[in-house]
Amino acid sequence: QAQTSGKHHLYFDSALNAEVADKLVLEEELRQALETRQFAVHLQPKVSLRDGAIVSAEALLRWNHPTRGLVSPASFIPLAEDTGLIVPIGEWVLRTVCAQEADWLKQGLRTVPVGVNLSAVQFRETRVLELVQDALATVGLAPGYLELELTESLIMQDPAEAVRILNALRALGVRLSMDDFGTGYSSLAQLKRFPFDALKIDRAFIIDIVHNPEDAAIASAIITMARRLGLTVVAEGVETVEQLCELRAAGCDEMQGYLFSRPVPLEEFAAMLRAGK
Ligand code: C2E
Ligand code: CA
Ligand code: CA
Ligand code: CA
Question: Which residue numbers delimit the EAL domain (predicted)?
Fold first, then answer.
């Protein structure tokens, strides 16, 4: 008996060591990825439910790992946040998006606003306002082409400070989106203190919208209330025509999801814009 538990103990210990070692390797790889330009930004369109036009996009980080191929951000963003590496990585995403938008406008392409995800760590540890101002000014991009996507948990860590920074960003002319709405604990009533332009309903509420009347009721209530508060409502993760119909009937403004397009490389997104206009 004692021997078995000893074995278990050993097993868990080495599993734990392996996990720590994996993390160290990953951390070192993340640093190299930044230096050797292994990251890319992909864009996923957000589409108007009124006329199907591409009205904006979301920037999603992609890691082209030399041996492991395309690595999903879900698997490395938590570590990037733990190690603080999200700060330079996030800055790179922001500057890359601003530079691309400015370049497209210079080429005469009628581009749309692009949303960049902001991590709570970035928000806490950097002067976000100064960073955004500098990213825009460096390439001469009008602030209306930039949108920032922030989660409830980010703004609720220090709501008073968040209100101050978000008001300043909004005064600059940057658009603000509440991301993953419904997964945290804040209510729409609390959110009205924040100067958001748009609210994104998390995919968790969209998945079963067609077959689960409760999810449909929640989504519909969020849409109605958010619209009455003057917010543009975006449904995340729309994959089927049935979901689309349900959302349209509920009065949702925009959708983002595989039904219309997966996130695509920058050049492919430019081609989508050219084809649509
Ligand atoms: P998110 O901000 O909620 O982004 C939406 C995620 O849903 C993306 O996953 C997108 O590819 C995926 N998605 C879009 N449409 C569909 C659909 O129809 N079905 C399904 N199943 N999924 C869909 P992705 O690209 O893997 O990103 C995961 C998360 O990683 C993001 O969730 C965001 O929290 C984070 N992330 C991505 N890029 C960045 C970044 O540049 N900075 C920061 N801080 N976080 C990022
Ligand atoms: Ca997002
Ligand atoms: Ca989201
Ligand atoms: Ca999400």
Answer: 23-277
